[in-house]
Amino acid sequence: MSDAPKSQNIVWHGAEVTQAQREALIGQKGAVVWLTGLSGSGKSTVCRRVEQKLLERKKFVYVLDGDNIRMGLNKDLGFSPDDRKENIRRIGCVAQLFADAGAIVLTAFISPYRADRDTARALLAPGRFCEAFVSTSLEACEARDPKGLYVKARAGKIPEFTGISAPYEAPESAELVVQTEGKTVDESADQVIAWLETNGFFA
Amino acid sequence: MSDAPKSQNIVWHGAEVTQAQREALIGQKGAVVWLTGLSGSGKSTVCRRVEQKLLERKKFVYVLDGDNIRMGLNKDLGFSPDDRKENIRRIGCVAQLFADAGAIVLTAFISPYRADRDTARALLAPGRFCEAFVSTSLEACEARDPKGLYVKARAGKIPEFTGISAPYEAPESAELVVQTEGKTVDESADQVIAWLETNGFFA
Questions:
Q1: Å from A95 to nearest chain B CA?
Q2: Which residues, at least 6 apart from B34, have a Cβ–Cβ distance to it below 8 Å?
Q3: What ipTM does the predicted assembly reach?
Q4: Pick the CATH number of B23-198 from 3.40.50.300, 3.30.1330.10, 3.30.750.24, 3.40.50.2300
Q5: B111 is catalytic
């Protein structure tokens, strides 16, 4: 697909309210924290804890979750490479909209392909995208197996399962590497929050 | 497409933070105000004014705009009936996510098909969706023609142009009918804000 929109006769609508104005009014800066890692690595759990902690600080935050979004926006997509690519493309666009709205949006998707994550990154202004590699090892993820998916994948009952029968391309220069092994959920969540704080998103 | 998601092995992820908690923390209720009407009817203009006024009241509000969203999320879609349907389906899903986040989201799309608008409505809990018919007449829209599209459509240069060569199904029971003819933008915007206020969205 080319980068140009397929539809003609459209113009970028000049918003009378800018992102900067929205941010000033709600007292924070829009950002995308893009968690990536294997199934069972702890992406959703960390996101939900960050969400909880930021809401307690009155921040406007929202989690886009792989499992949730596939019930709605991306319910027409499966797990083939093409569908995974389109899945991540759409999520990147939605995350961009939330960040434009001034929200801190956390995304919790395996997002195994480096190129797809780079596509999501490219939608944001420099500095607004935090690739957060949840680096839990395959062994630890498989030992946790919270949804029983690894057992099924090893039995050949799930095709194209990341880490088993489909590739995972680990980030090479993530803004953040989130450790979960030997750490509490709070500690992992605090790593993310510290990054946001250090980088000035709680204006 | 069936209502069931194509992908298997997914579960609705139990959010540790509920919509009600998010709303309590930010002091408002999530809602979708779905503006529908002909090209040039004033949907985007009214939305932007509502956005400006609500932000001044420190409300978390965001506009999803037909022209804007086609640059990103829906840039793979054209204007055939199938593409229009998918366009609205995706936008409905994104609007639902914003409302779930606690935001007041305004959408400004022609959305000519009744069935598609009903699909967007069905994604929201009862009472959270406001269909707002921007009822500007074809004659007035064509006289305004802010983007010069009616001239092109009449000359046969734009196929499937709503109101000229493609149908517009007016709402039969919209929550709100927004008048723009003989009114100021402020007056039209205030109609929308009054609906939100009356229906308890500024908790």
A1: 10
A2: B95, B107, B109, B111, B117, B120, B121, B129, B130, B131, B132
A3: 0.88
A4: 3.40.50.300
A5: yes
B73 contacts A152? CB cut-off 8 A:
no
- Encoded tokens for A22: 């929205």
- What residue of B is the nearest CA neighbor of A8? B78
Q: Which residue stretches of chain B are H helix?
A: 19-26, 43-56, 66-69, 81-100, 114-122, 138-144, 149-154, 185-198
Show me where the domains of chain A are located. Answer: 25-198
* Residue of B28, B32, B65, B76 to mutate for A, most A C-beta atoms under 10 A: B76
pLDDT tens figures, B9-49: 443 344 468 889 889 888 899 999 999 999 999 999 999 99
Instruction: Nearest chain A residue to B63 by CA: give it.
Output: A101
| Contact assignment for B15 to A48 by CB distance below 8 Å | yes
Hey, what CATH class is A25-198 in? alpha beta
pTM of the model: 0.89
CB contact under 8 A, B62 and A101: yes
